[in-house]
Amino acid sequence: MNNKTLIDKLLLLVWGIFIYSGCTDLEVEERDSIVLDGSGGFIAGNPTELLSAAYNDLGALANQTNVYALYTHTSDEMIPPTRGVDWGDNGVWRTLHAHTWDFTHAYVLGAWNELNERAFKANQILASNPSTQQAAEAKFLRAFYTFQVMDLFGQVPFREVDEGVEVDPRVFTRQQAFEFVLKDLTEALPDLPDLGPAAQNPRASKAAANTLLARLYLNKAVYTAENAGEPGGFVFEQEDMTRVVEFADAVAASGFSLEDNYFTNFTTEASSEIIFTSPAGSGENRWQMTLHYSQNPSGWNGFTTLAEFYDKFEANDQRIGQGPGTTDYVFDSNDFPDDTEDDDDDGNTEEGKPFNGIGRGFLIGQQYNDDGTEAVDSRTTRLLQFTRDVPLSGAATEKGIRAIKYHPRTSGQYILMRYADVLLMKAEAVMRGGTSGETALDVVNQLRAVRGASALNSIDEATLLDERGRELYWEGIRRTDQIRFGTYTNTWSEKTAQEPFRTLFPIPQQAIDSNPNLVQNPGY
Amino acid sequence: MNQVYLFTRKLLVMLIGIGVSFQVASQNITVTGKITSADDGSGVPGANILEKGTTNGAITDVDGNFSINVPGDATLVVSFIGFIAREVPVNGRSYIDVVLQTDIQELAEVVVIGYGQVEAKDATGAINSIKEKDFNRGVISSPEQLIQGRTAGVQITNSSGEPGGGVNIRIRGTSSVRSGNNPLFVVDGVPLSGDDTSASGSNASFGNSSARNPLNFINPNDIASIDILKDASATAIYGSRGANGVVIITTKSGKAGQGKLDYAYNLGVATISEKYDLLDANEFLDAYAGFNGQQAADDINGGAATDWQDEIFRTGITHSHNVSYGGGDEKGDFRFSLSYFDQEGIVERSGLQRVSGRFNGTRKFVNDRLKISTQFTVADTDDENVPITDNSGFRGDLLGAALKMNPTLPVRNPDGTFVQPSLTETNPIAMLEFSKSFTSTLRALGNVSAEFEIIKGLSFKTVVGFDRSFSSRKDAYSRDLKAEGIEDQGRLFVGDIEINNQLWENYFTYNTTLGNDIELDALAGYSYQSFEFEASNFEFTNFRTSDLNLMINNFASAAVEDSNGELQQTVVGTNSESREDELQSFFGRVNLSVQDKYLFTATLRADGSTRFGSGNRYGYFPSFAFKWRLGEENFLPAAFSDLSLRLGYGITGNQEIPHNLFQERQRYADWDINENGDIEGGGLETVAFPNPDLKWESTSQINIGVDFAFLDSRLSGSLDLYRKNTNDLLIQLNSAQPAVQQFFWTNLDADVINRGIELSLNGVIKDQGKLRWDVLANIAYNDNEVQNFDKLINTGDIDGQGLTGAFSQRIAEGQPLFAYFLRDFAGYDESGISIYSQGDIQNFTGDSPLPTVNAGLTNNFSYGNFDLSVFFSGQFGHSVYSNTANAFFTAGSLANGRNVTRDVVGNGESPLNTPDVSTRFLEKGDFIRLQNVSLGYNVPLQSEFISSLRFFIAGQNLFVITDYSGQDPEVNVNKAIDDVPSFGIDYTTYPRARTFTFGANMSF
C-alpha cells in the first residue's frame, strides 16, 4: 500500500472530525433542577404550594435562637447563664442579656435573614396569581414579618420579585414600613376568613389581622417617634388608642375569650384564646432550653427567669405554676400515676408516667422524677433544687428558676397570637386614652379573675407592664412591651448597660455589606 | 458497572495489541557480535543494528548479541536510546563487538511542561521536577506524599493521619477565599477535575467526615516523575485552572531493552507517634472529687482503669506488592504493572486497600512518523472508615469519645456486653463494634493519543482521554449502640458518586531552525473536556436487626409498625444530583531560542466554561517569559558552571465554583431523618440567587528567578522571587435581603496577595571513590495578605459543648487569609473565671495559620552498595488552634465527669468557667520533622535469574520537634463556615503514625 495516500486519507479524516465536532456552544442541559430562567424576570409558582410552604416556615419562630432570642433575652424576663462548659456559645446569649451585642451578632443576622427571606416569599405568592383569599393571606404574612423587621431594626429593605442580585433593595424608614404594614393588613382584612377559636388556627384570619393591627397601633407612637432611642416620652394619640380598642373588640367579636385553665393554651387541646398558631413549631425547644439534664425529659439546662421577675407573681396566681417542682409544691402521690398503659411506647409499664415530674409554670426548689422520687443532679449527686439566684456567667447547674409553658406531654403546636394579649392591649389602650365602654382596670381585673389572682385597685403603667409580664412571659413579646413602656433601658440583674440606642438592633454587618441603601442605626 | 468492565476489557485488548507487535527481521549473509555498554561492559539488549543506507536491520537479544545478514562491505549503524550511535564498517568480518558510549546529552534532565517537555536548561518558568529517586519512601498511599516537603514553595498538608485521608497542597500560598485552592493535577496529559470521587461520610450524631483523597487511585509505584509548575508563565498554558499551580504526574513507561520484570514488596509497621497525656483512673477520680466531692467521685467510679486511647489504637501493618513488566525498542515501549496495597490504620478497623493495574505503551508506525501511545490505569480502592469526623458536638466522635471517656469504666461488663453509660458518653469500642463503614471506588483513567509528523518539524497530535469512577459508601450504626439518634433505631447511610470526565485534545507542534541561531518551537491546539458528576444518597433508620451486614445488605430490615400495626419502611431518599460541565479551550505557545542564550516563551489560552453565564464564558490567559542563559556568555567567570536569569509574567484563572450559579434554578431540598427519627425537608428551594455576571477569578503573577551552578556543578540551585495577585475573587456572600436565597456568588473586587522567595540548593559535599554525599535543601518564604476587601467573613468553625456559633478565623482587609480572630486570654481571676485582657470580644491576634516558612533538607549518602537518605522538613511562623482542647480539656469538662489532659488539673480554672474561643487554645505550630530516613543495600549479584536485588528499611515521621501540645502540628481539619474554608485547626484529628517499612525490590 502506498503509505502517502494512506496518511493523506488519515489526515483528512482527522481534520474532518476536528472541524465537524471541533467546537461546542458550551450549553449544557440541566438534569437535576428546574431552570426558571429564559423569559427573564420572575416566574410564578403554584400559589397554593407556596402559601403552604410559607405557613410551614412559621415553625422557625419556635426555635430558641434568632428572633425569639432577640425578643426575650434582651428583656427582664429571661437570663441565659453560662454554666461551666455549657452555653458560652461564643457569647451569643450573654451579650443579649447584658445589652452589649454588636453588629456581628449571629442572631441579629439570623433574625434579619429569617424575617426578610420570609417576607420575600410572601411577595412571591402575591406575584403568582393567587386567589383573593390567598392574596389576603400572603399580605397578612408579609405584614407579620415586615412588622418584626420594623420593630427590631427600624429599617425594612424591600425587593420586587423580579429584581436580581444586581439590584440593591430599596429601604423603608420605620415610618414608611409602618404605612406598608398598615396597608397590607387593611387590604387583607376584608378577604380573610373569619375564624373563631379552634384547637388549631394555623391560617391567617380576620382575628389574626385584627390582633396585628391592634399591636401596630398600640406601638405606633414608638414606630413614628422622632427618636426611637429615647425611652418614654412616646406620644400615644387618643385616636390610635381607640383603634386598638376597636381591633381588640373585633377579635372578641370573632368568638375569642379567655380560657379558664391558663396552661391549656399551650397544648393541642381546644382553647378559646388561640388566634394564630404554627403546627410546624412544636414547643419542644421551649422545654429543652430550660429543663435540667437530670430531669425527664432531659433538657439542655439553659435559660431561667430572674428572681425579680418571678417576684411579680402572687402565690395564688395560677400562672405562677401548677404541679411538681413549682412554687410551694407539696408532694402528692396522685401527681405521679404509673405508666400502666405504656404511654411512652417503650414496651414496658413502669413506675411513673413519662414527664410526671415536670410541673407547669415556674419550676423552683426540689424537682422530681417520673416516679415521684426527688431528682438528683447526676453529675454532682446533689438533690436537684432550682434556686432563685442566678449569675449570668459561671452558674452552677441548679441555678435559676425555670419556666414551662409547653409541657412535654401535651404540647404540639406553637402559639403565635392569643386572646389574653389582645385583651391586655385593649386595657393598655384604654389606659392611654382610648375610648371604650370598659375601664382599663376592669379589663385587667377580668383577666386576673380568670387567672386566680387578686383584683387590682388601680392601674398605672408599671402595673400594666407587670401584668403583661405575668400573662405573656417567655412568649416573645417582652422586648416590644418594655420599649413601649420605657423600661428597656433600665437596669436589672446582670444588666447594667443603659444605652438608649439599643432599643433598635444594629443592621447586621453582612446586610450593610450587601446593600449600600442601608445605613447603620445610630450608636453601633 | 458492567459497562465499565466491558469498556475496560476492550481497551485492554486493543492496547495489548500495540504492545506485543515487536518483530525481528532477518536475511541470509551473517554477521554476529555483541553490543556492550562502555559504562559497565554489560550487554545492551534491544539495540538497533542497521545496514547503512538500507532498511535492513536487526535488534540485539537479551545479552546484547545480534546477528545480521549484510554484504561484506556494508557499514553497520549501531544505535540505542541513551547511547551515542556508532558506524562500524564490516570489512568482511563475521564477528564484531561494538562498545557504545553513554550519551550525556541524551540523558540531560527534562522537565514536563503542559503539552510537551523541555530540557531543564531551556525551561523558562519556575518548575520543579522530582524524579523517582528523590521520592519519599515507605508507606505511601497517594502521589502527593511522594513529594511532601521536597520542593520549595509547595506546602503539602495531610488533613490527618487517616490512610488515604485528604491532602491539601498549596503552591506559593493560598490565593482564594473559597474552596478550590488545590492545584490542577494532570496525569499523563489528562487534567483531572477537582471533584471528590467518593462520598463524604454521614455519621449520625457523631458529625460529618470529609471525603478521602481522590488521588488515592494512582499507584505511587507507577510514577516516574512529578513536575510542579509554579509560576504563571508555566501554568498559563492551563489557563483557567492554572492559578493554584499545576502538578503534572508522569507514569513510568517501559525502558528500551529486553523485557524486564520488577517486583517490589514493602512491609510497613505503623504506631501512634504521640498520644494525649490524659489523667489515669486514680488521678481522674481525685480531680473529679476536687470539684464535686468524694461522694460524687465514688458514684462515677467504675472500678476499672482503662486507657481508652490504647483501646482504639493499634499497630497498623501495611503490605504492598508491585509487579511490573516492561520493555521496548526503538519502535516503542510498553509496561504493565499490577499492585496490591493493604494499609491498616493505627485506629482499629480503619484502613485502605487498593488493587490497581496499569498499561502504558507506545509504538511508532509509518517510518516512525506516526506514534500511537496510551496510558491506562484502573484501580479498585476500598476504604474502611471509622467515625472520626470534622464537626462532632459535645458528644464527640470516636476520638473525642476516647479522650473524654471516664477512665474508671471498663470496656465491657462482666457478662461481656459493652459498658454504655449514656447517650452522650458513648463507649468508643462499642462505637467501633456497632458500626461498619466502607467506601468502594473503582476508577479508571486513561488516554490514547496519536501523533503524526506531517512534514519534518510539524506534528499533529490528537488525544482522547477519559476518567471514569464509580464509588459507593455505606455507613451503618447498629441499634445496640447507645448514642443519640442511633440507640434503638439503627442508622444506615448510603452515598454513591459517579464521575465521567472526557477529554479530546488536538494540537500541532512545530519545530524549526531559522537561520543558524534561532530555534522556534510552536504549539497550537484545541481542547474539549466534559465533566459529569452524579450522586445519590439514602438514609435508613428503625432497623429490625442489629446485624450490621444485614442492615447494609438487606436494608428492607429498616421498618417500623405504624399506629395501625402495619409495617412501614423507614427510609428517605436523601437526594440525587446529576450535572455536567464543559470546558472548551484554544491554546498556543511559542518558544524562541536565540543563540541558545536568549529564550523567549509566550503562551495564550482561551478557556470557555459552562460555569459562567453566556456573557462571561470565555477567559483569556496570556503569559510571557524570558530567560537569559548567562552560562553561554563568555564574560561569565569560570567559577560558574552555569547561570541563568528568568523573568516571567502571566495571568491564570480559577473556576472552582458550584455548577450553574448564573441561572435561577429550583431543586427539591434534601430529606433528612433527624435525631428523633422525624423526617424533614423536601421543600422546593431556589438553588442560588443567580448571578449572570459571574466571571473567572484571575491571578496575575510575576516571577524573577536565577538558576546557578558553581564548582563544576557541585553546587547548584535556583532562587525565585514572586508576587501573585488574585482578584475578582469568586466568593459566596450574604444576599441583600429580602432574597430568594441567603447566599449568592459574586466576583469581589478585592485582592489576595502572595509574595515570596524560594531557594533550592543541591550540593555534592563529597564524591570520592565509593563515597558520595549529596545535600538537597529547599526553603521558601511566603507572605499572604488580603487587600481592598471591605467585607468581614468568619470561618474556622469551633465545635463542642457550649461552642455553638463559635468561630476562630476571620477574613478581613490587611490580614492574611484565615487570620485568627480570638479573645485575648490572660489567665483566670481568683474565682477561676477566664480573664480576657481586651474584654469579652474577639480581635485579631496577629497570628496566622499559614506558615510563612517551609523548608526541607535531604542528605543522601552512598557508599558502595549502600545508600542512606535522611530527610527533615519543617514549617514555621504559623499557629494551630486546638479545637480538641477547647472542647474537651477544660475544668468544666472534668467537672462533668469527662477525662482531660493532666495540665487541666490545678491550672486555676473553675469548673463553672466558660471556655470561650480564645488565645488559650492557640499554640505556635512551628515544627521540624524527621520525615523520612531510608537505608538501602543493593545486593551484588551474578545470577542468571535476578538482575538486581535491593533491600531497604525506611522510617517515616520518626520524630517531631515542636512546642505544640496536641498530637501533631501539621493538621488541617475542615472547619468551613458557609463553604468558606478554614486552615490549620485541629479537632479530634486522626493521629499521625510513626512508620517503619522494610522493603525488597528485585528485577528479573
Walk me through what this model shows.
The complex is a heterodimer of chains A (524) and B (1004). Chain A has 524 residues and is mainly alpha-helical. Chain A contains 17 helices and ten strands. Chain A has a three-stranded antiparallel beta sheet, with no helix packed on it. A two-stranded antiparallel ribbon of chain A has the order 2-3. The longest helix of chain A has 22 residues, at 132-153. By secondary structure, chain B is mainly beta. Chain B has ten helices and 57 strands. In chain B, the strands form 14 sheets. Chain B has a 22-stranded antiparallel barrel. A five-stranded mixed beta sheet of chain B has the order 10-17-18-13-14. In chain B, helix 3 crosses helix 4 (294-300). The longest helix of chain B is centred in the first third of the chain and has 18 residues, at 2-19. Mean pLDDT of chain B is 89; it is low at 1-27. At the A-B interface, helix 1, strand 1, helix 2, helix 5 and helix 17 of A face helix 4, strand 30, strand 34 and helix 10 of B.
What is the mean predicted local confidence, pLDDT of chain B?
Answer: 89
Most strands sheet of chain A? 3 strands, antiparallel
The mean pLDDT of chain A is 91
**CATH architecture classification of the domain at 3-192 and 500-514 in chain A:** Alpha Horseshoe
Question: What is the share of helical residues of chain B?
Answer: under 10%
Q: Strand order, biggest sheet of chain A?
A: 5-6-9
β-strand amount of chain A: 5-15%
